[in-house]
Specification:
six-stranded mixed β-barrel, binds iron/sulfur cluster, 19% strand, alpha/beta
C-alpha cells in the first residue's frame, strides 16, 4: 500500500498540512487526501476546498508540452525562444523593457530564482506578483511601523486572546480552518469576544458578539477614533510607548483632529454610536487582543493607512510581542509570505533586505556574485500592465497566475498583452484567459508533482512534496527560470539541480550580514542535507536564538526561538516602532448619479482565485453554480430587478452579467460580486473587468472593495439550462455559464433570439440529430415553455429546459437523474412535467460541499426529524461535520425553519434521494 505523503494545501494562507495518498505511481491516478494531524496549522482539519483537492488532479485540461505560437514544440526550442526574446529586447531597450509577473502560488524556491534572475542578472526590479493584489498594503504598513515586514502574531494567539477583532476578513469562507480554530476557542472559553468589522454581514459574523457594519472605506476614521478613545480612557501603555516607539504625539494629534468625537466618527462610518462605543470599550478593556485583518483592509486606495491605523492601536496599548495580542495580517495565498521572504515584489530586495539601501544592494550582489543589481523599485502590478499597454515593457513572463481575470481593469490587461511583443506564460493549465494570449507556453508541474517550501500566514515554513510524477513534459518553475538564465549567459548563478540547493542558498542569504539586524533569519536551515530537507517538519521563524529541537517519534520538531518583538526591539535603525499618523481619505472614485452603488468584490466559500483548479471539482461547484451578485432588496427594486433574474452590472471600466441575489447580507448602496468566474466558465462574468484601476499610493494595491457601479435588468426573451454528459457547443445564447457536475455538465443559458420551433435547435445543441434516437419533448408555444431530453438505452444523456422566466425546474433533482443507470416511467413523466413525479427526490441546492447535503434535506431534518441544532443536523446528515465551512448557513436554515413555524408540520417534503 502507498504511504501517505506529507504536503501542504496549495490554496489559502492558513497553510494546512495535507496527507496525500496516490493510488498508483502514475499521474492522474486516484488520490485521497486528509488533513495532517501533526501539522501545527490545522491539526488534521481541512476546509471544503482542501478536502476536495483530489478532485482537482488529473490530466484533463493540463498543459503537457511547450508551445510556440500555438504549436507544440520541445523544451530546447521553447527555452531558446524565451531567452533569445528577452535578450534581444534587453539589448535593444534596456533591462526595464522586460518583466516577470509571478504568483503567491509559486514555491519559495521558484520565487527565489525568478527574483535573483530579474534583480541580480537582468538588472531590473520589474518582477511583481499577484500577491500585490491581496496583501501589499500590509507589507508596506509593516515596513513603516516595524522597519521590517514581520507578522508578529501566530495562530495560537487567536486561541489565547480575550478579544479577536476580525477587520475586513470573511474568515469563515476565506480562511476556514483558522475560523474553526476561533470557533473552537470560543466554545471552550465563552468569555472570548469576537468583533467583526465589515460592511457586509458575512458568514463570519455568525460568531460575532458585535458586528460593526461600517461604511465601505471608512476604516481609518474608525481606528483613529479607537486610538483617541484608548488614549482618553487611559488604555495607553506609557512605559512601552516611551521605551519602544516614536511618533505617538503626532499620531494622537491627527487622531484627535480627524476622529476625536465618538458620535462624529459613528456618523462618518454610518455605525450606531452605541455599537462603536461598545467596540471601543471592549478593545480598551481587553489586554489580550488580536486584530486580524485581510483583504477588506488591504484592497483599498488607503490600504496602507488602514493597516497602520490598526497597528497604531496595538502600539499605543503595547499589545504586540505578547501572547494573545497583536495586529495580524493574514495572507490570501499559500506562499505570499514565501514570496515576501525572497523579495519577490518589485519594491523589495531579497531576504527582507531593502532595495533603497546601497549597503543592502551591495550585500545581495556580493552574496550572489551577480553582474549587477537593480537599483530602483520596479513596476507594481497595475503599473506593469499599464507599461505593457504603453509598449514600454515589451516582454513579460507570467508564471502561475491569470491576470486577464484577476487584475483590476482586466480588459485593459487583456488589451495590454495583445499589444505585447513577447508574452511567455508558464502554467499547468492549458486554456486560461491568459494562456490564450501567450506566444510561448511552458508546461508547469502542478500541486502534487512539485517539490519545495511555502510559508503560511504565521511564518511557518512547510514542505510541499510530490506524490505524483509530473505528466508529459511538465517541469518545475525553478527549473524553467534556471534554464532560461543559463541560455541568457548567466550559467554561474543558476547551476541549481534541485529545490534543496536553492533553499540552502536562500537560507544562507537570510543570515548574511544579519547578526540580528533582520528578523527574517533562517540561517539555521542552511546546512540541511538533502535528506534533512526532504524530512523537514513545519518550522516557524525567527529561528535564531534558543529555540532548539525536540523529537516526536521519528520527526524532528524545531521550536521557534522567540516571539517577534517580545523584547520590544523593532527593526528601524533605532530599534523603535513607528506610529504612522493616518489621515482618513475617501476612496479614489466616488459614487454619482450614473454609478450610484459601491461594488465590493471578494471570494466565496468553495472557489479559489480564477477557478482554474477548483472549477474542476464538481462538488465545489455546486454551492454557487453560476456567477451572481448580491444586492440589497430596496436597491434591487430601485433598479427594476428581482432576485433570480439576470442583471448587468456596469462600471466605467467594464460590465458583467450575473444572477441577482438579495441575501440580506449586503447593506443599502452596495453590490457584492465574487471574483472567480473566468471565460471558460461564463460568457461575461470576469468581475476584474469592472474594478477601477485605483491603487494605494504607498503599496500599489488595487481598490477591489470600492468601485462605483450600477445595476440594470439584462433583458432576454428566454432562459433555460441544458444538462449533458458531454460538452456542448453553445449557440444563440446571449448569456451562459458552465458548471461541472458529478455525472453531467450544467449550462445555464439565456437568449434574445426566439425560435418558433425549438426542436431542431435543441437537437443540435444536445447532438441528438438522429430522428430515431430516444427523444422526449414537450412544447407549449402559447407560454414559451420547452422541455426535451435525450436518452440512450434508457439512460439520460442530455436534457434542456427553456422558459421566458427564470422559474425553471430543480437542477439538483435533474442532475440526480444522471446518476441512474436507467430512468423509470415516473422519471420520464417528470422530465415532461418539469418536476419530479415523486415528492421526495429533490435534495435542494447544495449547502454542505463535503458531503453533498442539500438545503431541502436540512429543512426536512428540522421539520421531520426534529433537529434543533446544527450539531444535531450534523449527526443526522453529516452536514457541517467535516470542515464546518457551511455551519453558519445551516444555522440560518435552521433558524428560518423554526421561525416559519413549519418545523412541527407533518406535511413536508422528505428527502431520501442522494442527500447524504
Ligand atoms: S483553510 Fe482550506 S484552503 Fe486554506 S490551507 Fe486549509 S484546507 Fe487549504
Amino acid at each position: 500500500m502507498t504511504m501517505p505523503v506529507r504536503t501542504t494545501c496549495p490554496y489559502c494562507g492558513v497553510g494546512c498540512g495535507v496527507l496525500a495518498t496516490a493510488g498508483a505511481a502514475t499521474a492522474g491516478a486516484a488520490v485521497s487526501v486528509a488533513g495532517d494531524p501533526l501539522h501545527p496549522a490545522n491539526a488534521g482539519r481541512l476546509c471544503s476546498k482542501g478536502s476536495a483537492l483530489a478532485d482537482t488532479l488529473g490530466l484533463d485540461g493540463r498543459l503537457l508540452r511547450p508551445r510556440l505560437h500555438g504549436q507544440d514544440t520541445d523544451w530546447d526550442t521553447a527555452l531558446d525562444a524565451v531567452a533569445d526574446g528577452f535578450r534581444r529586447i534587453i539589448d535593444a531597450h534596456g533591462p526595464d523593457a522586460v518583466a516577470f509577473y509571478v504568483s503567491g502560488q509559486l514555491l519559495t524556491e521558484d520565487y527565489y530564482v525568478a527574483n535573483k534572475l530579474m534583480k541580480g542578472y537582468i538588472g531590473s526590479a520589474n518582477i511583481d506578483t499577484n500577491s500585490r493584489l491581496c496583501m501589499a498594503s500590509a507589507v508596506a504598513a509593516h515596513l513603516r511601523a516595524f522597519g521590517e515586514d514581520v507578522v508578529p502574531v501566530s495562530y495560537e494567539d487567536l486561541e489565547s486572546a480575550d478579544l479577536i477583532v476580525l477587520a475586513g476578513s470573511n474568515t469563515a469562507w476565506c480562511h476556514p480552518v483558522l475560523y474553526q480554530r476561533i470557533v473552537g476557542a470560543k466554545a471552550r472559553r465563552p468569555e472570548l469576544k469576537v468583533v467583526v468589522i465589515d460592511p457586509r454581514r458575512t458568514p463570519t459574523a455568525a460568531i460575532a458578539d458585535l458586528h460593526v457594519a461600517l461604511k465601505a472605506g471608512s476604516d481609518v476614521a474608525l481606528f483613529n477614533g479607537l486610538l483617541w478613545y484608548l488614549h482618553q480612557h487611559g488604555a495607553g501603555d506609557r512605559e512601552f510607548i516611551e521605551a519602544h516607539t516614536r511618533g505617538v504625539d503626532h499620531a494622537l494629534a491627527v487622531a484627535e483632529n480627524t476622529a476625536g468625537n465618538v458620535a462624529a466618527v459613528a456618523k462618518h462610518c454610518r455605525v450606531a454610536p452605541d455599537v462603536l462605543e461598545e467596540f471601543y470599550a471592549l478593545f480598551a478593556g481587553s489586554p489580550r487582543t488580536v486584530t486580524l485583518f485581510s483583504q477588506g483592509v488591504n484592497q483599498s486606495s488607503a490600504g496602507t493607512d488602514k493597516a497602520n491605523s490598526i497597528i497604531n492601536c496595538h502600539l499605543l496599548t503595547g499589545r504586540i510581542g505578547r501572547p494573545g495580542a497583536g495586529p495580524f495580517s493574514i495572507t490570501g495565498q499559500p506562499n505570499a509570505m514565501g514570496g515576501r521572504e525572497v523579495g519577490g515584489l518589485a519594491t523589495t530586495l531579497a531576504a527582507h533586505l531593502e532595495l533603497g539601501r546601497a549597503e543592502h544592494r551591495a550585500l545581495v550582489q556580493g552574496f550572489w556574485g551577480s553582474p549587477t543589481i537593480a537599483a530602483a523599485p520596479g513596476l507594481k502590478a497595475v503599473d506593469l500592465f499599464e507599461s505593457i499597454h504603453a509598449r514600454r515593457v515589451k516582454a513579460v513572463w507570467i508564471a502561475g497566475t491569470n491576470p486577464v481575470v484577476s487584475l483590476p481593469n482586466a480588459n485593459r490587461a487583456r488589451a495590454a498583452l495583445r499589444r505585447c511583443e513577447l508574452v511567455v506564460v508558464s502554467d499547468c493549465v492549458a486554456d486560461t484567459d491568459t494562456t490564450a494570449l501567450a506566444h510561448v507556453l511552458l508546461p508547469a508541474a502542478a500541486w502534487g508533482e512539485k517539490e519545495g517550501t511555502v510559508t503560511n500566514s504565521e511564518r511557518c515554513i512547510s514542505r510541499q512534496r510530490a506524490f505524483l510524477p509530473a505528466p508529459g513534459e511538465a517541469r518545475a518553475d525553478w527549473w524553467m527560470f534556471c534554464r532560461v538564465a543559463e541560455r541568457m549567459g548567466f550559467r554561474d548563478g543558476f547551476r541549481f539541480q534541485s529545490p534543496h540547493e536553492i533553499f540552502a542558498e536562500h537560507a544562507r542569504l537570510s543570515a548574511a550580514g544579519n547578526d540580528g539586524s533582520r528578523a527574517f533569519d533562517i540561517g539555521a536551515l542552511a546546512g540541511l542535507t538533502c535528506a534533512d530537507y526532504e524530512a523537514l517538519t513545519p518550522v516557524r521563524w525567527p529561528l535564531s536564538g534558543a529555540g532548539g529541537e525536540r523529537s516526536e517519534g521519528e520527526r524532528v520538531v524545531r521550536e521557534p526561538a522567540a516571539r517577534p518583538f517580545a523584547d520590544g526591539r523593532f527593526y528601524h535603525a533605532d530599534g523603535r516602532a513607528r506610529f504612522v499618523a493616518t489621515v482618513p481619505r475617501a476612496p479614489m472614485y466616488d459614487i454619482d448619479g450614473e454609478y450610484p452603488l459601491v461594488l465590493n468584490t471578494g471570494r466565496i466559500r468553495d472557489q479559489w482565485h480564477t477557478m482554474t483548479r477548483t472549477g474542476r471539482s464538481a462538488r465545489l461547484m455546486q454551492h454557487a453554480p453560476e456567477p451572481f451578485v448580491d444586492l440589497h432588496a430596496q436597491d434591487a427594486r430601485h433598479a427594476g430587478v428581482r432576485p433570480g433574474e439576470l442583471v448587468q452590472v456596469s462600471t466605467r471600466w467594464g460590465s458583467v452579467v450575473a444572477r441577482l441575489r438579495c441575501s440580506g447580507d449586503v447593506g443599502r448602496g452596495m453590490i457584492f460580486a465574487p471574483m472567480h468566474w473566468n471565460s471558460q466558465y461564463a460568457g461575461d462574468a470576469r468581475v476584474g473587468s469592472l474594478v477601477s484601476p485605483a491603487v494605494d499610493p504607498v503599496s500599489g494595491e488595487p481598490e477591489f472593495k470600492h468601485t462605483p457601479a450600477r445595476v440594470a435588468p439584462f433583458v432576454v426573451a428566454w432562459q433555460g439550462f441544458a444538462l449533458s454528459r458531454r460538452r456542448v457547443l453553445i449557440r444563440d445564447a446571449t448569456a451562459w455559464s458552465l458548471t461541472p457536475g458529478a455525472h453531467c455538465l450544467r449550462y445555464e443559458l439565456a437568449g434574445r433570439r426566439v425560435f418558433g420551433n425549438w426542436s431542431p435547435w435543441a437537437r443540435r445543441l444536445l447532438e441528438a440529430d438522429d430522428p430515431a434516437c430516444d427523444w422526449i419533448e414537450y412544447s407549449d408555444r402559447s407560454i414559451g415553455v420547452y422541455r426535451a431530453a435525450h436518452l440512450v438505452e434508457g439512460r439520460l444523456e442530455a436534457c434542456v429546459f427553456l422558459s421566458p422566466r427564470p422559474d425553471l425546474p430543480s437542477r439538483t433533482w435533474l442532475t440526480g437523474l444522471f446518476g441512474k443507470p436507467t430512468l423509470d416511467p415516473q422519471d420520464r413523466c417528470g422530465l415532461l412535467a418539469g418536476r419530479p413525479a415523486r415528492s421526495n427526490v429533490d435534495t435542494g441546492d447544495i449547502v454542505c460541499a463535503c458531503f453533498s447535503v442539500g438545503r431541502n434535506s436540512i429543512r426536512a431534518a428540522v421539520r421531520e426529524r426534529k433537529a434543533r441544532s446544527a450539531a444535531e443536523i450534523g449527526r443526522q446528515l453529516r452536514a457541517g461535520s467535516n470542515c464546518g465551512s457551511c455551519l453558519s448557513e445551516i444555522s440560518g436554515i435552521l433558524t428560518a425553519e423554526l421561525e416559519s413555524g413549519s418545523a412541527g408540520s407533518a406535511d413536508v417534503v422528505t428527502c431520501t434521494y442522494g442527500g447524504s
